[in-house]
Structure prediction request, 705 residues.
Amino acid sequence: MTTRYAVDADVAVLTLDNPPVNGLGYDTRRALVDGLDRALADPAVVAIVIAGAGKSFTGGADIREFGTPKAMQEPNLLSVIAAFEASTKPVVVAIHGVCMGGGLELALGCHYRLAAPGTQIALPEVKLGLVPGAGGTQRLPRAIGLEPAMNMIVSGNPVASDALASIPGQALFDRIVDGDLLAEAKAFARERAATTIGKEAGPHPRVRDRRVEHPNLDAFVLFARTTVGAMAKDYPAAQRCVDCVEAAARKRFDDGMRFERETFASLMMSPESRALRHAFFAERAASKIADVPDDTPQREVRKVGVIGAGMMGGGIAMNFLNAGLPVVILETKQEALDRGVATIRKHYEGSVRKGSLSETKFAQRMTLLQPTLDYADLADCDLIVEAVFEEIGVKQAVFERLDAIAKPGAILASNTSTLDLDRIAAFTTRPQDVIGLHFFSPAHVMKLLEVVRGKATAKDVLATAMAVAKKIRKTAVVSGVCDGFIGNRMIEQYSRQAMFLLEEGALPAQVDAAAERFGFMMGPFRMSDLAGNDIGWAIRKRRYVEQPELTYSKVADALCELGRFGQKTGAGWYDYRPGDRKAHPSAVVDAMIVEHSAAAGIARRTIGDDEIVERLVYALVNEGAKILDEGIAAKAGDIDMVYLFGYGFPPFRGGPMRYADEIGLFNVVRAMRRYAAADVDGRQAGAWEPAPLLAALAADGKTFT
Ligand code: NAD
Prediction:
């Protein structure tokens, strides 16, 4: 049973018991109402307590039911809340740990609420592009006041119970209990029963009967609408949250509830909510690997080694230090080691100055760091991550050394971006222990981690890597071995299109503006200036030799020949002023682009923003389809996670594959055919040939996700 029923003398206790977070799924809801009926029918019971088993009261709706008929099957949450609100016996809710979404809505529908201090209270629905749908927008403002409720509902962020209890005049919590919560809830319930005994239905306080007062309602609502409009322009749910909270102040309760229901139902159909829900589930699904079940044994990781204290090595080390793991960091020369350690120290000092890290924690982290020049110091590490120069010879030397000194069972990881992981694994006598951990720069900030599964990588190594990723708070996505893995392999096609657009008539600022209006964090040229234009140049030089059939516009090479490598050289696609990262359009570069078109015999034309966005995004989608087809990514959602967490793809579009589904693959393929036809001189060499998987899905009217 997912809600337990027990009677303690004269109080019935309903305990939500549906691990992991006591989600309010169908069985739990059914059992709650059955428990209520049982308690009401038992003359010995005078009051009812609802509590949660384990670490929390409830996280809200059971996400496993999302999108299934069970989610709304009666008794749905609205019906459950109505039943408890109408109970003739007082209902007391005992809240601890976490009380979110539907859980908070249930609590608000009961008569009394006691909470443990520090309980996380939230209505997070806006994060899924929705408004709370079971009265949250109508009851919370009545319980804590318009302004605090607006903040919570529009942001979706949790607030601690004790902070809410300190709001003057609030009716959310009757008491904060810093002791035995259940015992106190039972005593409180008895007390309330004693004062209301013999009275008919309705003697118990109901949040719905309160009024929302505000001295300056019009001005506050206008302020909320303007603020939200500026901060969440691509997220319609935030504005609709404002509408619903406003309705709580202006409408009768039942009318406000109807308004909330209608708003919820219309948002369920919005592309933004569908995209956000897709991302929510895809993130959870990314940690599931078909042939590596959840109960796969894991290796213990208590100590980590990092080889190379350069840009990536330092950031990688910080991830583990932040998680409280000791790190041995190795370099070949003392000065490189000192520089690397100094950079780490400087980062932490910056955090201390900003107040986000305490002096004590800073000191703890630095003592966990052991710099060394001696491989012997890595001998007791459970996981060793290599981040040395991107040259196969250097990697070979490192992995041969590691093979000689690492303890048996140690996981040997490479942060390589482009090299063949299977080749690296073959430098050791233990390829089963070798894996790719492809961090993104800056490694201590970026959420994405591509976990690269080599052909020999053992399942327990993979399972351990996924668990380690979680521990250091990364979103891990498994990729097979190929050039560029999932993310960089796709971005190459996107960059290729960005360059073709330049020689056909666009300028960097126009392409970037179109991409940024679509929602990308940064357009392709600003991104390239940040990463370093020389990186792409090196890759292209390799492609010219290895894949001469793959064509590129030479405009980026011309830029690199001018030494314009991006922010690091103070000049790239844009001009930069000292000490400032702002990109200023460059007259020199723009003239160079126009000249390049003339020299290549291309008549420049006006290119619309729609074409820019379609060509950039469909180039990603087509390569993504190949990656899926080849099994490099296991699911379309994994590709979307790479792009949302590693490449600044707009979350409200759900990732490139989900976006293509939204547009319709039929339409994507038609657009690609149009671009293929327009490429009369074949400069784009097959870029618009739909990948077989994409063509087949489009023909069958199917989707990626
Ligand atoms: P970097 O040049 O900043 O750092 C490399 C460091 O490795 C240097 O400090 C160097 O002294 C040290 N080193 C070289 N040979 C060594 C050896 N034999 N033993 C120990 N230390 C040695 O380079 P980086 O940008 O940090 O890149 C490191 C790796 O990470 C590369 O494989 C690169 O492809 C990968 N990577 C880089 C990025 C990025 O954005 N820079 C992103 C993902 C992955």
